[in-house]
């Protein structure tokens, strides 16, 4: 340590990260080389971008490259880049704290991943601190492209690091790793070369290992499709996506109009968000003429395509565009539209080509497509044919498309119907599907909380309105085959008795229902709840109530209509009971209402309900 050296404590989170890196991640040690090369590559990309727009770059003519030197006697590995480098202040913050937003979360997720499956580590990008997986002491010498004096950062990975001035450095960063006693393999050329070939082939700068360039630097997306092997594509996917799986889909396309675009996009096999790892960063990088403009770009694709990995290169973009300016740049927006539409078209083609393979994709990433429908009006036309739902005609676990539903519609049916429920069995046992079954009309089963919002946002498909079967104004009289028979007419209550019962029910349930009506669509069930507000379904209401409760607000339940089945023995008997024992009839009416609410998936007061239920049971057994 020189006179001017200062000692600094790592931020608390950094200490924790170092602890995980040093003590849990030793089985995946090789990745430290990938992490450091990746940092160097980022610094070089930034330098390449800056040098296009700025004139006063220090060491301007030094070639952009990465050099790795090994010393088998001193057991060191040194990685040097001629990137943008770091100032003293940058060294202190960049290599002393963790930049990840919500780093607390990041740490617990990382610790969990380290415990469960080390393959997941790659997804996290441990970054610079990975150096301590193999190093007992790490020295970083860096000089910024602004030409200010260079500095040296030294740490043994425990609680602190030192910083001191270091003169005579070139622009860029040199990282000297003194290898741990059990990590001496990393001073062997064959070992390091293998790792670079495995992880870093696609780094767009020469990597010189002991004087030999060990990677090819041609950008894969500029090459012709039929020259690229599946293996090369898969390796590239692993490289850009930091992935260890293979891609599920791959789309490589080039267009010249309306914009020049070269893109390689991958859909992974696994959905990390659904595995509980929080929201993933966008995985597509934006280039202009092979120069990286925006890594993990939030602008080039809509948010709901954040699971995609890959690159988009467009030579029409201005090279000197800043990241902020990308956000509302008209050209970028146009690019975004073209690429998104192209990808959605690709998905539609794939779904046609191999529907089972598409279903695998749907089961993993369908949730993002649904997010797209509910959050982005712009692509609804392209998204609608991609959604899949189970239905009364689909096999269990084999959802169907709206296109296929429409194809199966009988003549005379003008709307597409759906009903929400927790699962197929529950929906099929409920009151809403009765008339659909009787009339042999297909009905879609929506089983995820977001589904009714999706169909509500779509509004229609192929000119057919999408209608929830719990809507009050649903009219099936024109659809399907079944007609009311005379026999059923006879079984019904007389019109007078019916009017009396309906007005009595309205009075008795006045505080609970908006209206009571005779049902035209119940077959066996005595009653059901329907929604007078045409846009709201019971499922949507349940979710909105839950989200209000989460925010500490009182749930806002709108009053529903109760439809009663005048052919049901229970309803017919109730009409008599009103006359002989009105108090008991009130309990029965309240119980019928609660039962219908439960079948609609809506909330009732369980205590009141159970107490009343016992009262009715007592009466039934004569207690
Ligand atoms: P990340 O790369 O995910 O941001 P790291 O911990 O790997 O996290 O690095 C933190 C920061 O340190 C980087 O964002 C970058 O600003 C800086 N850095 C790391 N390595 C280099 C390098 N070789 N040259 C210039 N800056 C670097």
CATH superfamily of the largest domain: Histidine kinase-like ATPase, C-terminal domain
How do the strands line up in the largest sheet?
1-6-5-4-7-3-2-8-9
The percentage helix is 25-40%
CATH fold annotation of the largest domain: Heat Shock Protein 90
User: How would you state the average pLDDT, rounded?
Assistant: 90
Tell me about this structure.
With 623 residues, this protein is of the alpha+beta class. It folds into 4 domains: 6-213, Histidine kinase-like ATPase, C-terminal domain (Heat Shock Protein 90); 220-354, 2-Layer Sandwich (Ribosomal Protein S5, domain 2); 360-468, Rossmann fold, CATH 3.40.50.11260; 488-533 and 553-621, Up-down Bundle (Four Helix Bundle (Hemerythrin (Met), subunit A)). It is 39% helix and 18% strand. The chain contains 22 helices and 23 strands. The chain has a 9-stranded mixed beta sheet. A 6-stranded mixed beta sheet has the order 16-15-18-17-20-19. A 5-stranded mixed beta sheet has the order 10-11-14-12-13, with helices on both faces. Strand 2 and strand 3 form a beta hairpin. Helix 1 (12-23) packs parallel to helix 4 and helix 10 (330-353) packs antiparallel against helix 11 (355-375). The longest helix has 24 residues, at 330-353. It is elongated and about 105 Å long. It starts with 5 loop residues before the first strand and ends with a helix. The protein binds adenosine-5'-diphosphate. Adenosine-5'-diphosphate binds next to helix 2.
């Amino acid at each position: 340590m020189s006179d001017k050296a200062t000692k600094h404590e790592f931020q608390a989170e950094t200490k924790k990260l170092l602890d995980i890196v040093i003590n849990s991640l030793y089985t995946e040690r090789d990745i430290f080389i990938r992490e450091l090369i990746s940092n160097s590559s980022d610094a070089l990309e930034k330098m390449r971008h800056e040098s296009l727009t700025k004139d006063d770059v220090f060491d301007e003519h030094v070639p952009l490259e990465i050099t790795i030197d090994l010393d088998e006697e001193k057991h060191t590995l040194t990685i040097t880049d001629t990137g943008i480098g770091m100032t003293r202040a940058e060294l202190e913050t960049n290599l002393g704290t963790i930049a990840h937003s919500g780093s607390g979360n990041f740490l617990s997720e990382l610790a969990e991943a380290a415990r469960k499956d080390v393959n997941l580590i790659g997804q996290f990008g441990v970054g610079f601190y990975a150096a301590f997986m193999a190093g007992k002491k790490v020295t970083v010498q860096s000089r910024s492209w602004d030409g200010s004096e260079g500095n040296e950062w030294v740490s043994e990975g425990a609680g602190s690091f030192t910083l001191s001035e270091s003169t005579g450095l070139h622009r860029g960063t040199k990282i000297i790793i003194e290898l741990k006693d059990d990590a001496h393999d990393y001073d062997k050329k064959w070992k390091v070369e293998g790792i670079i070939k495995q992880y870093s082939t696609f780094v767009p700068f020469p990597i010189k290992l002991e004087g030999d360039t060990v990677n090819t630097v041609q950008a894969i997306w500029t090459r012709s499709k039929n020259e690229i092997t599946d293996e090369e594509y898969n390796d590239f996917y692993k490289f850009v996506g930091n992935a260890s799986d293979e891609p599920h889909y791959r789309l490589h396309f080039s267009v010249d109009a309306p914009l020049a675009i070269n893109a390689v996009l991958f859909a992974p096999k696994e959905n990390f968000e659904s595995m509980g790892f929080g929201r993933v960063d966008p995985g597509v990088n934006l280039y202009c003429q092979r120069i990286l403009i925006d890594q993990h770009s939030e602008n080039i694709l809509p948010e709901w395509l954040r699971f995609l990995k890959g690159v988009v290169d467009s030579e029409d973009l201005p090279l000197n565009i800043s990241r902020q300016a990308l956000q509302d740049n008209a050209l970028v927006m146009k690019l975004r539209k073209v690429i998104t539409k192209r990808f959605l078209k690709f998905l539609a083609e794939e779904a046609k080509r191999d529907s089972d393979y598409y279903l695998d994709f749907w089961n993993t990433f369908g949730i993002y497509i649904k997010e797209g429908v509910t959050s982005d009006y712009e692509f609804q036309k392209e998204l609608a044919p991609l959604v899949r739902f189970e239905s009364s005609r689909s096999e269990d676990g084999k959802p169907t498309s709206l296109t296929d539903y429409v194809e199966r519609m009988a003549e005379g049916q003008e709307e597409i119907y759906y009903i929400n429920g927790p699962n197929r069995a529950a929906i099929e046992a409920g009151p809403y599907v009765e008339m659909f079954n009787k009339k042999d009309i297909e009905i879609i089963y929506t089983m995820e909380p977001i589904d009714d919002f999706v169909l509500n946002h779509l509004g229609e498909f192929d000119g057919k309105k999408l209608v929830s079967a719990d809507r009050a104004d649903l009219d099936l009289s024109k659809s399907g085959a079944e007609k009311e028979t005379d026999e059923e007419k006879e079984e019904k209550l007389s019109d007078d008795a019916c009017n009396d019962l309906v007005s009595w029910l309205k009075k008795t349930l006045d505080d609970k229902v908006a209206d009571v009506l005779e049902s035209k669509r119940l077959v066996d069930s005595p009653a059901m709840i329907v929604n007078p507000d045409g846009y709201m379904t019971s499922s949507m209401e349940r979710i909105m109530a839950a989200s209000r409760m989460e925010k500490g607000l009182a749930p806002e339940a709108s009053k529903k209509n109760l439809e009663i089945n005048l052919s049901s023995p229970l309803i017919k008997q109730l009409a008599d009971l009103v006359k002989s024992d009105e108090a008991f009839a009130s309990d029965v009416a309240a119980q019928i209402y609660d039962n219908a609410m439960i079948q609609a998936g809506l909330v009732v007061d369980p205590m009141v309900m159970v107490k009343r239920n016992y009262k009715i049971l007592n009466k039934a057994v004569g207690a």
